[in-house]
Prior knowledge:
Elements: H1 13-26, E1 27-29, H2 30-39, E2 45-48, H3 52-57, E3 64-65, E4 85-88, H4 96-106, E5 111-115, H5 117-123
Parallel strand pairs: 1-5, 2-3, 2-4, 4-5
Amino acid sequence: MTSLVRAIPAAASDLALQHFQQRLTFETDCSDVQVSQEAGDVDFVLVDVRGPVAFERGHVPGAINLPGRLIDAQTLTAYPPDTLFVVYCAGPHCNGANKAAVKLATLGYPVKEMIGGVMGWLDEGFDLTRAVQRQANPTVACDC
């Protein structure tokens, strides 16, 4: 009897290697961001693409708030074209980071997604920074 896992055969090793290496060019994870920050090796701009209310309630330390809907050439004039942006949103249930990554790539910037977003950061046991204490609005998870 074949398991559901083996019902569809795995890709050949050379194809799997190519696939997983390529994925790493598009994404990073919360642990890599945190370890880089802790070591002082921050050669990227960490961008929380959620709205300002969500950002104020809690965001990854060191992140700037640039909601995805506001990303355009004018808002990025201060950044050289080789600036690596690492974008994140609320978590896997939100595609705001993907939308922001599309905008950044369209403008010619290198970009990676921090997979897991805020939920992934918290799952790793890392703390968020809170900008301002406001009454939480559970109906506003993301304004990206």
